[in-house]
Design a protein that fits this description.
- The structure is a single chain.
- This protein is α/β, with parallel strands linked by helices and 268 residues long.
- 47% of the residues lie in helices and 10% in strands.
- It has helices at residues 32-39, 74-79, 96-113, 148-158, 169-172, 186-233, 237-267; strands at residues 3-5, 11-12, 22-25, 50-52, 58-60, 67-68, 80-85, 124-126.
- The strands form two sheets. Strands 1-5-4-7-3-8 form a six-stranded mixed β-sheet, with helices on both faces. A two-stranded antiparallel ribbon has the order 2-6.
- Helix 3 crosses helix 4.
- The longest helix is centred in the C-terminal third of the chain and has 48 residues, at 186-233.
- The termini are far apart.
Length: 268
């Protein structure tokens, strides 16, 4: 993938004895051009390894061999490759092109560093997952937030890890919500996290209802056929047995007659 070097003075030289063990996902709360400007200013004291814009264009601010100032945690910064994404405000979308570019980048990082399958909380984190939990809305709990599930699932598919993962209970209720900067506020966790999951559940229920309706129609059709057969044969089991025996006897008689006729022809 094409990556444009921008550069930032805001980083640690090297990894301070740590090694890269994770990816951290962020949202810009702005446009890529604005992020370029901020990260190039030493006074901002902020940076990220990569930033991805609305058209999928990818900029690099810090070498992977150095540690960007992104996570608000020295330990995490020294171990992570951080990725900023356009979006995070009502009027700035996080686009599909941005998500797809991020998935490709995450897949490439995971492959190069031998992460294996990407799993939230193990080798890929949201900014709000990282102590001291100073950014409770980053990257997904904000307007035009990041669809991190799509990124992780797509990256895993690119690297050959198969089907989409189901969200864990912790994800549904807000990852590690008791320790998040939401202050353990369950209302906020539910308010932000659940709508998307509820939508998925509703779709699954709708599909299940359609399947049940189709099965009910099939059963009803089969019942109608059974009713017709019952009417034709009679509902008394003895009557049905007599009719069946007679039908079999008639068939046998015909077979006997046919065989007799053939024997006569042979005799001639």
């Amino acid at each position: 993938m094409s990556i444009t070097w921008i550069g930032s003075p805001n980083h640690y030289a090297g990894r301070r004895g740590y090694r890269v063990t994770r990816i951290t996902l962020h949202i810009m709360a702005g446009w890529l051009a604005g992020t370029d400007n901020i990260f190039q200013r030493a006074s901002s004291q902020a940076s990220s390894t990569y930033g991805i814009g609305g058209n999928g264009e990818t900029h690099q601010y810090v070498a992977e061999t150095d540690a960007a100032w992104a996570d608000g945690s020295y330990t995490s910064n020294c171990q992570t490759i951080s990725i900023e994404h356009q979006g995070g405000l009502d009027f700035i979308p996080c686009t599909q092109a941005c998500l797809d570019a991020s998935a490709r980048l995450c897949a490439d990082i995971a492959r190069r560093y031998g992460f294996g399958k990407l799993e939230r909380g193990r080798n890929i984190f949201l900014h709000r997952d990282v102590p001291p939990y100073a950014h409770p809305a980053c990257p997904d709990l904000c307007p035009n937030g990041l669809n991190w599930r799509y990124i992780i699932n797509k990256a895993n598919q690119i690297n050959g890890y198969g089907d989409i993962d189901m969200a864990t209970a912790a994800e549904i209720w807000g990852y590690n919500y008791n320790k998040s900067a939401l202050g353990g506020n369950m209302y906020n966790a539910i308010n932000y996290e659940l709508p998307g999951r509820i939508s998925d559940v509703k779709k699954a229920v709708t599909a299940l209802q359609a399947t049940v309706t189709a099965l009910q129609a099939t059963v009803a059709a089969q019942q109608r056929q059974i009713d017709k057969l019952t009417t034709a044969l009679g509902s008394n089991p003895e009557d049905i047995a007599d009719r069946t025996a007679k039908a079999v006897s008639d068939k046998i008689d015909k077979l006997v007659i046919t065989m007799t006729a053939q024997e006569k022809d042979t005799a001639k």
